[in-house]
Specification:
Layout lengths: L24 E2 L9 E4 L6 E3 L2 H9 L6 H6 L2 H8 L5 H16 L1 H12 L3 E3 L1 H10 L5 E5 L5 H7 L8 E4 H4 L6 H11 L6 E5 L2 H9 L3 E4 L3 H7 L1 H4 L2
Parallel strand pairs: 2-5, 2-7, 5-6, 7-8
Antiparallel strand pairs: 1-8, 3-4
Length: 233
């Protein structure tokens, strides 16, 4: 869902022979052989701009990322991703967590800058998903908030997929095995016939453990290559 970690700079894992060595590919089948695409949202389709937040953090004597780390303490993250916090409640909790360090007024500014950070979509990825929907089911699988539908509508993504598996609605979050089973069921395809795409290596590994093929997403060229055969149909 919302970005909760610094960019992952770990090297791509090697692929097994016959997978054409797509960077980040973690397959359990030939990459061309899938009947549904299960795709993450944040870090693949949607991206956040935290420049204003980072400016405020520096001005406040904080390190870049301090607000994010406060927003995603284990307790806050679990409550958020399982649908137990509204946007206002989350912002208030972040404010409370930062107040001792920067004072209440600035803590509120930081919380607002984080929870209201501008975001954009990658039009090339959206275009590929739209074309792919004509050949196989596409399902968004995201650790997200109860206001996700509003966000998707605002970004023009209300019809980007055939179904959406939102952790805050289904009551379980990646990398729990249950969410992958739910996603495959929504796609109407056995897990072994699904290609799962996520910018988190841990989430991709969990999908692989569930029997899926996995792509650890880092750049659009990877997805373009992985989907090439289906998009050419």
């Amino acid at each position: 869902m919302l970005p909760r970690h610094l960019p992952n700079s770990a090297p791509a894992r090697p692929c097994r022979a016959g997978a054409d060595h797509i960077p980040g590919m973690i397959p359990v089948m030939d990459r061309h052989d899938f009947d549904a695409l299960l795709c993450d949202l944040d870090g693949v389709i949607r991206f956040f701009d935290h420049r204003e937040l980072n400016r405020l953090e520096e001005e406040s004597g904080l390190q870049a990322g301090d607000t994010l780390r406060t927003a995603f303490t284990p307790e806050r993250e679990r409550a958020l991703l399982l649908g137990r916090l509204t946007r206002a409640e989350w912002a208030a909790s972040i404010t409370e967590g930062l107040t001792a360090r920067v004072g209440g007024s600035r803590a509120g500014e930081l919380a607002a800058a984080f929870t209201g950070a501008p975001n954009r979509v990658d039009p090339e990825v959206v275009g590929m998903l739209g074309r792919l929907r004509g050949t196989v089911p596409v399902v968004l699988v995201t650790n997200a908030t109860v206001w996700l539908d509003e966000d998707l509508a605002r970004l023009g993504l209300h019809d980007v997929a055939d179904a959406v598996v939102n952790s805050s609605r289904v009551g379980v979050a990646k990398p729990d095995p249950a969410i992958y089973a739910i996603a495959a069921e929504r796609a109407g395809v056995p897990a072994g016939r699904c290609l799962f795409v996520d910018d988190s290596a841990a989430n991709v590994e969990a999908a692989r453990a569930a029997g899926m093929s996995g792509l650890h997403y880092r750049e659009v060229a990877q997805l373009r290559t992985a989907l090439a055969s289906r998009l050419a149909l």
